[in-house]
Amino acid sequence: MFTYYLDLALRSLSRNKALTALMVLAIALGIGACMTTLTVLHVLSGDPLPGKSAQLYYPQLDPRDMDGYQPGGDPPSQVTWIDGMNLLHAKRADRQALMTGGAVPVQPAQSAIEPFFENARYTTADFFPMFDVPMLYGRAWSAADDEGSARVAVISRKLNDKLFQGRDSTGQTLRMNDVAFRVIGVLDQWRMSPHFYDLNSGNYAEDEGVYVPLTTAKDMKLARNGSTDCWGKGSDPDHMDTAPCVWLQFWVQLDTPAKAAAYKQFLVHYSQEQKALGRFQRPPNVRLPDVMGWLDYNKVVPGDVRLQAWLALGFLLVCLVNTVGLMLAKFLRRSSELGVRRALGASRREVFMQLLVESGVIGLTGGIAGLLLALLGLWLVRKQPSDYAALAHLDLPMLLTTFLLAVGATLLAGLLPAWRACQVTPALQLKSN
Amino acid sequence: MEIRPILASLRKHRIPALLIVLEIALACAVLCNAVFLIGARAGEIALPNAIDEQGLSVVTLTGADPDRAASEIPRNLDALRRIRGVREVAVLNTVPLSGNGWNSNFTTRPDMKPTDKGSINSNVYLMGEGAGRALGLRLTQGRMFTGEDYASASMGSSFMPETHVAIVNQRLAERLWPGQSPLGRKMYVNQYWYQVVGVVANVLRPKQAGAGLPGIYDAAFFPMQPTAELSYYVLRGAPADRERIARQAEDALSGLEPAAVAEGKTFVDIRGDYFSGAASMVWMLVLVCVVMLAVTAFGIVGLTSFWVAQRRRQIGIRRAVGARRGHILSYFRTENFLLSGAGVLLGMLLAFGINLYLMQHYEMARMPWYYLPAGAITLWLLGQVAVFGPAHRAAAVPPVEATRSA
Lengths: 433, 406
What we know:
Chain A has two domains: 2-45 and 301-432, no CATH class; 53-297, no CATH class. Chain A has 14 helices and twelve strands. Chain A has helices spanning 2-15, 17-44, 81-90, 127-130, 143-147, 157-164, 214-219, 257-277, 291-297, 303-333, 335-343, 348-382, 396-421, 426-432, and strands at 56-57, 95-106, 116-123, 135-138, 152-155, 173-176, 179-187, 210-213, 224-225, 229-230, 245-246, 249-253. The longest helix of chain A is centred in the last third of the chain and has 35 residues, at 348-382. In chain B, helix 2 (14-45) crosses helix 11, helix 9 (276-310) runs parallel beside helix 12 (371-395) and helix 11 packs antiparallel against helix 12 (371-395).
């Protein structure tokens, strides 16, 4: 029966090509706009480390003085050097890493390449296993390298391609900031989006090209990129380790919710202890968001992207109402034909099914055309200069969503016209003919 | 035109009539909000900026040895001055719309703390000698900095300049001392104080901070001797030369500072980059609006055509009993007018509701009232244009149609 309905639908659709084209186009445009914006939203609000992100937490403390204190306020979004180092050495979590962003001048040995600036991350040994960073060659540094401020560096695959033509560069020397570093590891392809572990460098910034132990970076006064918030006597660029300023990010891995609860308790104790010592002045104000909680708190997904998604949804709605109207007109016009079918013994249900197949065909065609439009739309988005542009690709779940949305929406849009059209009284229609 | 027969006939076609009303309402609601957003973003893109944007080229120098800044900066400026077509050269800590902000909270009384409620977050522009001329600042009151101001100013702790003179934007002056003359007044940051010696026409900040978009003109200027913090070289020349000057200046600085990285750009490009997100949003919204209006218009054409086809016989009868083509034409026009009217009424309510929702969730401003009638009139006109074709076809139905069976 289905193939017969399909045949009927195709015949009916080809009878009035302009109307059919209009309906398909309306659906396609609505779906195309909707899928483009939803895909961008999906990509931007995605989990950067699926399966792992729920075990990664970002401890927040409040080490500030009483100036501007308001109960219930938010603690600073970074930590001081003293607190970061205390928490790092306490080793109360399964893994922990202290870090900040920076930029280093790279002075290639080959004279063919001009010196250039590379974004860098100054961090501690656990960074790599904690964030599941894949290694192509060599290894990351150890806690001993952190202690000894070793002159070692891990570089990204991209930088390795640029400087060493993709060869295994472990053991090679890399001059940065006029100091020789030994390359001990090369990362494989790795990009965290959002750039959750340090949002100061841009929510969707590319990952860094150079990774250097934090202590080494501090000893050599490598240039920092990021935000610094100070209070009291303010900052002293030369003594950032004692200045009353927050400027470091601290991440911990806690494998079970019980451990997370215990760690939060530890942070409260730590705050109380620091207050007893006179370092902290405010009552303990501790937070421990996980990766997704941290991204939510920082409202990482750009408001414009959400706005666009809402508008596209409104646009799809206009297109759908339009299709409902056109389909209703089309079905009602065929009242007499449907009357004949009913008189010849087709049940209301069968007529209804026939019309639904017809609207399904429109939905499917519109969906395919909409998918092509969405691909075009995403291509346009990738041409934009924003830092998330390159991420806008259609993945499998979104591909399926597109089809379900298209067919579901048109079937829904076909329901009312089909129901209305199968209400015809056969006798009346036959008589008027 | 008698509207009762139209209403009677619409009552018989409730669902199609309702659909047209709904479509117009939705289109009106989306249109009003989209156009409002377009206006807001376009307003941002066009924010005035009282510097010589067209003639400026900017080179950033990163990675130079901070300890040698005092001797290298004058040498670099000399080299840049020798580039053909360069009229003014100077160095600053940042430039408008660079994205690299230097924020500090200023107060108007020495006993107030920067964290107090009354303080105003402002950008700190540190200017090397001649930066006022190089940027093309427009002085409206007071004076620019003197050579002695520049020579005596040094970098203090907390990234604040050790000096006692400042120039402020008009806008910042109004916010700090509403209704009073700012000249000679003092502004404070903790232990530092600065006396206002001049006021300039509003210059944009490097990026939005503090009060957000309304605070985009909160900026103050301070003199500074050559120090490591000054790394934005600005060169002013004729607009036609700016691309070449940016390129040559980049080459010149790269040559002088082999270990550092120099990057040259015209200010026009810096502005374009800063607003690129807003610009692409505007294009996307314009596209959606145009396509949506087209879809709505075609929908009206389709439904009205169906209506006309369904009523050929009735139209023929009307024509046979004496109605002119004009009567038929105006029947369909009035019908569309009524449907659009209901649609835009509903649409304006919906548009208002959506705006309220967006205000709560997306820091949107309240939509001015005139957007609503403007959107309504647009859709009303659109309806009339769309109905034109089908109505003409209806009017062309000959009276003889009355004698034919359907």
